[in-house]
Amino acid sequence: MITLGTLTLLQHPDQLNQLRQDPSLIKGAVEEILRYLTGSQFATRRVAIEDVEVGGQTIKKGEGVWALNASANEDESVFKDPTRFDIHRAPNPHLAFGDGIHQCVAEHLARAEIQIAIATLIRRLPNLQLAVPDDKVNYVTDHTRDFGVTTLPVKW
């Protein structure tokens, strides 16, 4: 998420400039990074214990379901203009770390690590920029792994 967050900010220079001008925005920026590019794309698999209707679709007893966290984080009934990256988005009830009994136990540590890493990176390297065009950034294509990039070439 540190790499994805850095990439996302570099791809949205207006948002990055706002964060550079006001470092106190880092918490909101990280929450938006988590929502915008959910690293863990899938929730735990579920099997219906009885017939149930979800979103107009019947799921029969015994059928399996994968819930897409990334899709939930773009729900228009929850997020205004969900495909737009906005470090000022509030509230931001994303599901990047799951929810309820399936909430990530390390979410607070992960948030702190991302906040510290990105804040330090943009403070120490104020001229940080991509060293390759956006379309040359290599994304993880193995769907058994969390979403991410394989490398992030930068210069400063």
TrEMBL record:
SUPFAM superfamilies: Cytochrome P450. Pfam families: p450. The keyword Oxidoreductase applies. It comes from the Eukaryota. InterPro entries: Cyt_P450, Cyt_P450_B, Cyt_P450_CS, Cyt_P450_sf. Keywords: Heme, Iron, Metal-binding, Monooxygenase, Oxidoreductase. GO terms for molecular function: heme binding; iron ion binding; monooxygenase activity; oxidoreductase activity, acting on paired donors, with incorporation or reduction of molecular oxygen. Belongs to the cytochrome P450 family. This is Cytochrome P450. It comes from Didymodactylos carnosus.
